[in-house]
User: Fold this.
Amino acid sequence: MKRIPCKVFAPATVSNIGVGYDILGFPIYGLGDEVSINKGKTKGLVLKGVRGNPSIPNDIMKNTAGFAAYKVLEKLNLTEEPIELVLFKNMPTGTGMGSSASSAVAGAFAVNEYLNCPLSKKEVLDCATQAEVIADGSFHADNTAPSLYGGFVLIRDNPSLDVIKLPTILGLQALILYPHIQILTKDSRAILKEEVSLTDHVTQSGNLGGFIASLYKSDLNLLGRSLQDVIIEPQRAHLIPHFEEVKSIAMNEGALGFSISGAGPSMFALCANTSIAESIKEKAAKLYKKSKIELTGYISSINREGAIRY
Amino acid sequence: MKRIPCKVFAPATVSNIGVGYDILGFPIYGLGDEVSINKGKTKGLVLKGVRGNPSIPNDIMKNTAGFAAYKVLEKLNLTEEPIELVLFKNMPTGTGMGSSASSAVAGAFAVNEYLNCPLSKKEVLDCATQAEVIADGSFHADNTAPSLYGGFVLIRDNPSLDVIKLPTILGLQALILYPHIQILTKDSRAILKEEVSLTDHVTQSGNLGGFIASLYKSDLNLLGRSLQDVIIEPQRAHLIPHFEEVKSIAMNEGALGFSISGAGPSMFALCANTSIAESIKEKAAKLYKKSKIELTGYISSINREGAIRY
Assistant:
């Protein structure tokens, strides 16, 4: 079949969502990485360039987009296929918005699209998630799966990539606040205690169950009662300047819930409408301005499509 | 309004369901306790008798049916109302099938029915769950809520009784196997470690999420993949003779999942149809016969109604 050059977009994601450490995530609209694929002039996959971020390694095997793309070719025994890949690195790194996953999904998805989709979505997910290992050392799909599939995604089991698409509540808005400080996922993981009290496990399980049920029931009230992380947030909040103050602002303005996005430093709120999200964003901006930390805010409904080809 | 004597039934329940320690439960048909209410001859609530089990204390405040019934009257400022209560204690105690909860729900539900339902279902649940405290020292609704409400029930939060009814999959069958040995809930709780590893917490959370999603999706395959308890079952299984062997039998016969019912010693399987449940029951009976432990098996679809008035 004819190969047509293509360009794809893979969205930024909020993983963990407070109550689903390593097992929940959702993507947003308007922020994410892109990959374009063209026919190459020589055998094999070539990383033709990385646009937008000079700090990303221009080496196919050290860059999650290139690595994931290569894994697709390897699975298909097509590593000699002449392909040129360009990564448009639109997202800042180390933000807690799934930057490495966004590149990985874009890379794997783009090559599969270029080859007219010989791999299933789950196989593409596998390739993208393998690339996450080079980014932070662990095979976890809580950013790659929502970036690829769209919507709220539950990863029942990471090793076997048992991924379940959950429903989205119409109108639900996400606000992401990204303070421009850097936290590396591996450092943010390292501070977590290896043990959880049984009491906290029970509380968090109830909240996770309530959160998932709220999506199926379209019950914003239940979603709000459930969005309370008693395990991870208390351990990581101190890594993020002003976390407790911003959380207070968000809850006072009417957010349904507020917690850390991924490994941080980004934070997210889920809100019933955009005006609540806007007013939290505005007040948070004032707060960070005082302490001279740059803050970027993103407001979006839950991205339902995931990765797309233009 | 006229008070009409009544009799009610509150079903036996499977709590925990493997992946939802303290937060999940479902009731069955055909087994449970009953309470009848008649107008009394003297002021106040009188426990007129306990039928079927001479070991149950014939004292209104030491018996979960009487205590829960009293809590209803107390909430309504009607403790002087002349009421005679008879408890039909059909269920054996210390079985892991929610025996104390069944009595408690029957007591609270019956008095509320007799008084023409002045209390909401949640208030009745509160009274019944307070009675659980006299049975095993903790305020937990994972037996009382399913016995009262019917269907799969999630208790998002025990202290505030935030209870969510989950859907049931049509045709799903429960098998309960009750080996006639006694384990007290408080002993079974005492052996549990106070800590859970973060890894196990993540695994169990994925399974809990998958289990809840499977009910909404009517996905038996997902239900089966999700019904794997990595936290409680490994700690309690040794309390139940032949647990691992019966579990092997159940899984080989095609059960979707198999674990401990409540605090044990009862075990439960969820099955796609009755013939699978029947064949597990038969093979388990043979196994226990060899070691001269009596075994009773109950097969039922998920009870959707919960407590009922005749």
About this structure: Chain B has a mean pLDDT of 96. The first strand of chain B starts at residue 6 and ends at 15. Chain B has two domains: 6-166, 173-301. Residues 198-217 of chain B form the longest helix (20 residues).
